């Protein structure tokens, strides 16, 4: 009879378990670009976040709480505060825009929910102070007058302030592909008049206004009943899919052009911001910023999709991301942290995308960046590939945009005297070789002094011509009456 050595089996199992734990991934930090939730239509004017939109962004924030914050998650960011937020670990920005700011506030309520008794404090006299709203956690959002993906401008390319990008986007309207679609879709758009006659005139109904037309009808399909608005009975899923496809072609071509990269200036700036955010985690050896969240809208995302060659991974990356969509760049390592923060050679980046309300699952899906075969990129490869298009200095932005004036004159002066420096604060920091790639960001603070360029860089589209409903990016998103919004859609 064979004798079973149970002690050897137990030791072998324990060894295997140790090996599995040792080889498991640790999330060191993350950068999230988050789109706002459901809103009233932009073209009506004074758009606002709806109750549905509030629910959407809160749900997404709650998902990231379970992924990155709670202690029992296998994706918890190493060393991040769990129950009570530690503001020094977060970096949160959003343009000064009602829809996006309110989306950010709702999202953060999900990320760090009310802490209850954990938030109470005892004073020196023994009095216990219970914070209001069951320990509601106050998390400030850094604001700019406009920003990446701002909803507050009718033509977001004009918000970038980038002259060459404006010219590039305008060139799309003289392209053969645009002219062909303008002609071939004329009858389709004019057939929509009964549904949108209170918003558009017949002359406005064309591919030129593909996004605005689809946006109005998309809101109607979510919020309006056919009983109250009988004309909407012809608004079936097939028609909506066709209009969405045309709107996506329109917006993607305004956001990105492979032969004229300056058109994607917003995505290039976002790429530089992602590099800086993740680099801050590395250079601080994980003791500083651990999670960066930037709130915005779809246009900047489309720019980045094109620059990062994501349509090569999935053709859906040429489509308009749904409400509450997220782009995520995770900084991960397989190295043990017992001996301190890992070296850059042991740090990797993985990209995820979640297509908001159109996704069947709340979970993230990973896609390869830069048309690479692997979902996991070494930090050095991620930096060098991003550097091919990322805007990493004021002088670089001014040169690509062909701008002059006070900001760019100051940038030229700074660039001539600036030294590239991102020396690691410890052995775990960024290596000098990699630091040279993004040192300009560290030296200069961030693109155009952080907020200066964020204020210049928005989403994508053309220069505003006139304040009429024919514009593709209508006016600023302010609080509007839902009842008025529904009435103005037409009948």
From TrEMBL:
GO MF annotation terms: phosphatase activity
Bilayer-spanning residue ranges: 433-457
Protein's UniProt name: Histidine acid phosphatase
A Pfam family matched in the record: His_Phos_2
Record's keyword terms, sorted: Membrane, Signal, Transmembrane, Transmembrane helix
Gene3D superfamilies tied to this protein: Phosphoglycerate mutase-like
Residues annotated as signal peptide: 1-24
Entry similarity comment: Belongs to the histidine acid phosphatase family.
